[in-house]
Structure formats: structure tokens, C-alpha cells
Write a structure and sequence with these properties.
455 residues, alpha/beta, Rossmann fold, 11 strands
Length: 455
Amino acid sequence: MSAQFRLVSSTAVRDVIAQGDLPELEFALLKKHAEKLRWSTAEKASFCNMMTDVLEAKLGEMEMQILVRSFCHSAKVVSDYLTASDRFNTRQVLLVIGDVGAAPSPWASLIQQAVFLHGKGFNIVSIEVPSLATSTNRYLKYGPAIIRDTLKFMKIDKVHTLASRNGGCIFLEAMGDYPKVFGPTHFVYNIDCPSGGKAAPFPVFKLEECLRENSLQFWFAVNDEDGYNHFEEGTARQSFDAVVGMQSRLEGERRRGRRSQDYDEILLSDTINAAKVKHIKRVDIGRNSLEIFSDVLLNSLVRFFESPPCASQSDLDTTGGIIRDVKTLGELKPGEELPELPALRCLRIGEEAFEAEVKAKANAAAEVSQEGGLAQLLLEARQRELPKPSEAYLRERKAIMGQISDFDAIINGADLNDDDDDDDEKEDKSPAVGSPPPNVECTNDANEEGNGDAG
């Protein structure tokens, strides 16, 4: 069921200031806490251009008022081929969801990030329902549909998301129900959820399917502070465990070869406020709280939203939970200078001095090679004793050599027997002692008969 909307009024902070009716929260942001927010004059002017649209929505039998605060680069001027309703789609649109259902003015918690990102070229939208401001469970029930219908009414195609606390739960619920509304990259700080359940209420398995089928990347940053501790039992731990579970399952699928990609679907920064570097600071203004990010983290958010999903968890671990800028990988460190070309140095210091430097470097290299260089390593390797073979190897070698010796003995014995047979045959063929030669016929009988006739 889609809600029906009607625009009631549209005013800017600048118009309210001109009327002399500026609310206390806006006055505190401009005057008292502008220095903590690190706002320059240009950023204060940008805040004064924030528009507040009052909409009346009817969802079934329920009627409610919706406040839409926005920063738009084409609020009044658009191209000739565009209508005023399409003005947001000229830039990337960022949906900001604060701690809805808990804070009276959830838009104020992320106002520093909204103004900064607007200055970097983003259009900003924040949607609130005052009638649901005191009930997180009702916000979780009706919030996703209200966000979808409000964006549709404002002709916004897709949005990136910047959320905190309960706003992160509302975002994940909306992502699971209406994934076509959202763009590729989303950032959530200190995700939380309404109390009353044993597990986080957002649809974990729907989110995993969205991450598998679409090019999406979620970046979750966690920082324990007053009222939020993801190690203790509570809603913060339930939400954190659900995110870690999704990250582990998706990473396991990639390791098993079910999917291949060059980025991680879920990034988790649990060291965003390390001992040496603090990237997030919280400032309370009455019942509202401001989440103030460092310049490093703000610039990292710009890179994250401007580029397609490309970061990995290993990159965050080596940079203290911040997405690094690949453009600065080749930049020089403070105090480091570019190496001077040899020809230019020769011209600058003269040929004689240059040749002396070359000879000195060559001699130093030769000494290093003699003392601890490659030649020394080769010499030590030749002089090093080989390790003794293991007992198992010696036993196996002895057994094999025994089998080889037995086999040789058998072969040698067969050769000796063959030689004996040949000798026997030779002995049988040789005439006996006193016997006539083999080719001479025996004539003793004939001689005897002759002798008888003669007598």
C-alpha cells in the first residue's frame, strides 16, 4: 500500500532567521557549537540554506505529518530539460537517518556530516515523522514504507545512506524490503535496534541475498561510548552480533569459491577511535547529541560514497578503520624529498666531487658485500654442516640397502652355478687317461686276429 502525500509548506532556515523565529536547536548549532563542529562561514551559509518541507501523508487509515529536511544544489535552478521535481537526481543523493524514535530531533546528530558532504557535491535528504518520535518499535514498523513512498513522491531514484544508532536498524529494514531504492554504498555508525527481542529485528537473510545479487557494500563503524557498549548484553550487542554473522557467512562463501569479487560486502571498523587517534567525538545538546567526525573520517566518507564498492576489510585493518585514499599511496612523507638525478647532481657539485661520491659509494658497497653481503652468506653456507638424517631415514635406508645386497647375492650365485655346469660339460667331453684319441678306431681285436692267422 502506497501513501498519499500533499505538500503543506516549504521554508529555509534563512527565511526563519529573517522572521526572527529561529528555534533553539538551530540557534545553538549556529552560535554556540559552530566551533566544535568546525564550521566555517561558508558552511554556516550552507546550513542556512537547508530546506524544510512539511508533508501530509495518508497511509491507509493513518494520517501523519512528515518533515523532509534537504540540501540540494539545484533547489531553484535546473536544466531546461528537467522539471523542478527532478532536481535531486542531478547529483548523488544521500539519505541521512539519525537516532529516530529516541532523540527528539534525530536530524541534528549527523548535521556536521550532512553539511560537509553537501559541500563536496552531494544532495542531502533527511526524513522524520514527529508522531513516531517517541516509539522506536512503531518507527521500525512504518518507517521503511514511509521512506520509500517519500522518496518516490520527491522523484528521487536511488540514495546512499548515512545512519546512526536506531537509524541503522531502520535502514537495514528498508533495504531488505525495498532494495531498488538504495544505491551501492552505505555507512552506519553505532548500529542499534529497539529493545524487547532476543535478536536484532532487521531481516538478516534478506540482506544477505541483496548483498549477493547486487553490487552493494555496507560500512559499519563501532565506538563504545556512554549509553552504547557492544560487549555488554543489550541491543547494541545484538545488532553487532548480527552484522558480524552476516560478514562471516559472506566471507566464508567467497573462501569456498562460491563467489568471486574484489571487495568485501561488509566492512567493520571496531577501532575507529584508537588510543592514539580519535576520529569521533560526541557532544550533547540537551536531549540531542551531535556526532562530530574528524576531517580524516569525513574525507574517507567522501571517497566511500563517490566510488563503487572496492574496499576490503584488510585495508581497514591496516589503516586504523579508515578507508585510505589510493591516490596518496605514492605521496612523500613529511620531510622526505625527491631523489636527485645523477646528471643534475654532477652539474651542481662538479665532476670531481661527483666522482668522489661515486667511488665512496662503491667502496662502501664492496665493504658491505665482504662483511655481510652475498659473498659472506655463500661462504657461511659452504662451511655450515649439513643436518644429520633422522633415525627413521637411517633405518629405511639400511633396509633398502640390505634388500639390494641380497638381490646381488642371488644374481651372483646364479652366475657361479652356470659356470660350474659349463665346466662339467667340458670335463665330460675330454678323453679319459689311457683311452684312445677320439678320432682313432680301436684295432686291438683286429691285431689279435691277425696274429692268430699268422701263427
